[in-house]
Amino acid sequence: MNMGALSKMKAWFDPASPAAEGVVRYALRVGAHEVPMADRIGQPFTLRFTGQMTCVSCGRGVKKFYGQGFCFPCFRDAPEASQCIVRPELCRAHLGEGRDPQWERDHHDTEHFVYLSHTGGIKVGVTRGTQVPTRWIDQGAGAAVLIARTPYRQLAGAIEVALKAHFADRTNWRKMLGPVLFEASALLAARAGLWEKLPPELHPYLLPDELPQHITYPVLAAPPKVTSINLEKEPEVSGVLAGIKGQYLILADGRVLNVRNHSGYHVAVE
Known about the structure:
Blueprint: E1 2-13, E2 21-30, E3 33-36, E4 44-53, H1 72-77, H2 101-107, E5 112-118, E6 122-128, H3 134-139, E7 143-150, H4 153-163, H5 173-177, H6 184-192, H7 194-197, E8 213-216, E9 227-228, E10 236-245, E11 248-251, E12 255-258, E13 265-269
Parallel strand pairs: 2-8, 9-12
Antiparallel strand pairs: 1-2, 1-13, 2-3, 4-10, 4-13, 5-6, 5-7, 7-8, 10-11, 11-12
């Protein structure tokens, strides 16, 4: 049995899969343990919430989280919880500013990409260069393509804002976890029209020739209907693990656990 605080699942492409056809492998992070999940698909699975909760930033015990696993002081002050995480157009790292200027230089005053992905519909997003393709996997994208490269986060956010009038910027998790049909040609067709959707000063950052990345997840069968699990209301999760997609553990009966949303919850995994 492995015990400890949950963290976002580790995900990577199987090195044996073709470069453009990535097959995802997962490890569940429980405290200091990384639990490989490949052999657990199709098998009975049990996870129990112990009742303990600790801040993902400072480690302090709490009774309530703010954001994804933060105590209130860290939610207010930690750079990982700053507004520009979800609204990159507000980032000020390139100006030498932010909650922690050094953290901002290391994480946001660096190369960023804008991308289109298919998660049940086409969406636009921003990610740090070092987070490709992890960001796509975390969102459960079936395919994605890079559309722009920028030297810092705020500029990528400006491109995203300009494209929000034409594409969604959030994932519909219910559609993403259901049976998703997509074609890479849809992503390429969407990219082809970007020149008309962006002001000329942003055109130099566009990437017109990147190839789509297909992503395959370890899912035996996508449930036709899904129900979200809240560990505070349902402290024991037990059933056959039918698959993993994005940051969701999918049980055969259609219940799903968003692991990332339960960061900082202490659990025991059998």
